[in-house]
Amino acid sequence: xxxxxxxxxxxxxxxTPRKIEDRREVTESTDExxxxxxxxxxxxxxxxxxxxxxxxxxxxxxxxxxxxxxxSLLDPGTFVEHDAGLVSSDPLRFxxxxxxxxxxxxxxxxxxINDAVVAxxxxxxxxxxxxxxxxxxxxxxxxxxVVGEKITRSLERALEARCPAITVVSTGGARMxxxxxxxxxxxxxxxxxxxxxxxxxxxxxxxxxxxxAGVMASFASLGDLIIAEPNAYIGFAGKRVxxxxxxxxxxxxxxxxxxxxxxxxVDMVVPxxxxxxxxxxxxxMLQGLPAATA
Length: 294
What we know:
Layout: H1 20-30, E1 33-35, E2 42-44, H2 45-50, H3 66-73, E3 80-82, H4 100-111, E4 117-124, E5 127-134, H5 145-161, E6 165-171, H6 179-198, E7 203-212, H7 213-216, E8 225-228, E9 234-235, H8 239-246, H9 257-262, E10 268-269, H10 272-286
Parallel strand pairs: 5-6, 6-7, 7-8, 7-9, 8-10
Antiparallel strand pairs: 1-2, 3-4, 4-5
Helix pairs in contact: 5-6
């Protein structure tokens, strides 16, 4: 039968090997999808980002860029960034695998910002606020001289305008490459928190994953209200360090947002999609303003 016969070569379809450019396009197309590390649910990336990077199946909260966090909280078009031009120097000429100055340059190019905090003024439910948000992708959101200065100025703007201050934290702590200059920011920022308290200007801290070390030992734990995102890692020293020090095994939930709430360190745990509405309600109460009408 004819179909057992070997066709002539000329009857085959000619297949042109895909070019390198084509393969790159295929690779890029996979970036359109996102798989939740918690439950393996697959989303179109644009849908996942539109859902504030929260898995609707398991509730896992992915880390967000600083500007995305600010956009998710403030009224559209109201944010005006301040101090964007502040840039870290390398006063200690620190070097390990490579120079600190080189690492700063490459991280600026990768993230598109000059340091690990984006700060400015805006409005939340028509209320003026001073806001600062950490960018974890910039050296783990670590606090050096510039981060401390931007947080300080953010709190100073709130003091001057007598409007609420909001800080969204996502950090590994103080930046070791700046040594004592980094640790000095703990005292400087804490002083501003005290001044806000004395002047009865509301200060709210939102703790995202992770919120640790020197930042948690200073301004991140001094808010009038401390809100955490679900399952965020919150603490000073790491869990393994504590276990090795006290020679005890700690519970699996240790240093989660829910654990810290139950111990009284965190006031409330709020899912990210509910954060803006809850924050607006709290700020109105703290300022003695009437509740917003529907």
